[in-house]
């Protein structure tokens, strides 16, 4: 006498969900690189801090001349200009001051005059991002 085995409905549902997840993962694996390639070519939206936000900083010891540098993003894309400080003698040994987030060159306002008076050239780039001056 043959034994007839009937699969419960729950096992069928689990099997179908497993197949669906495998298919979705396959689609994600195929589409993801194409999506990154297509979306990576877009020019980022840049919001620049208005210059009037930096007025009055000399009262707080930030008396440095602003310098700006443009960065070529490639493919004809010009990225926003980057603010940096370049203080001290041009022929002096260079000290490069790098800040973390959320900070900018204002962090070094008290150190720069002492380093410059010691004969060093101090360069402080402001990274593009939150709280940066660019």
Which stretches of 5+ consecutive residues score pLDDT under 50?
none
| DSSP helical segment count | 2
Q: In what range is the share of β-strand residues? A: 15-25%
Q: Give the overall silhouette.
A: elongated
Average the pLDDT over all residues and give the rounded result.
81
Strand order, sheet with most strands: 1-2-4-3
> What class, by secondary structure content?
alpha+beta
- Relative helix content: 25-40%
- The Cα radius of gyration reads 28 Å
User: Order of helices and strands, N to C?
Assistant: HEEEHE
* Separation, N- and C-terminal Cα atoms: 84 Å
Largest sheet: 4 strands, mixed
**Total number of strands:** 4
Plain-language structure description:
It is a single chain. The protein is an alpha+beta fold and 134 residues long. Helix content is 29%, strand content 18%. The protein has helices spanning 9-40, 111-117, and strands at residues 67-72, 78-87, 94-96, 121-125.
Secondary structure elements and pairings:
Blueprint: H1 9-40, E1 67-72, E2 78-87, E3 94-96, H2 111-117, E4 121-125
Parallel strand pairs: 3-4
Antiparallel strand pairs: 1-2, 2-4
Primary descriptors:
134 residues, alpha+beta, 4-stranded mixed β-sheet
Summed up:
The chain is α+β, with helices and mostly antiparallel strands and about 130 residues long.
């Amino acid at each position: 006498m043959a034994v007839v085995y009937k699969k419960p409905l729950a096992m069928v549902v689990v099997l179908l969900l497993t197949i669906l997840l495998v298919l979705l993962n396959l689609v994600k694996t195929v589409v993801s690189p194409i999506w990154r390639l297509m979306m990576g070519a877009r020019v980022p939206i840049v919001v620049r801090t208005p210059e009037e936000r930096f007025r009055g900083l000399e009262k707080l010891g930030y008396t440095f001349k602003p310098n700006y540098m443009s960065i070529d993003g490639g493919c004809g894309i010009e990225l926003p200009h980057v603010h940096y400080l370049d203080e001290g003698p041009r022929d002096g040994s260079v000290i490069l001051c790098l800040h973390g987030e959320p900070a900018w060159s204002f962090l070094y306002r008290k150190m720069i005059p002492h380093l410059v008076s010691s004969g060093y050239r101090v360069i402080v780039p402001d990274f593009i991002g939150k709280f940066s001056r660019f």
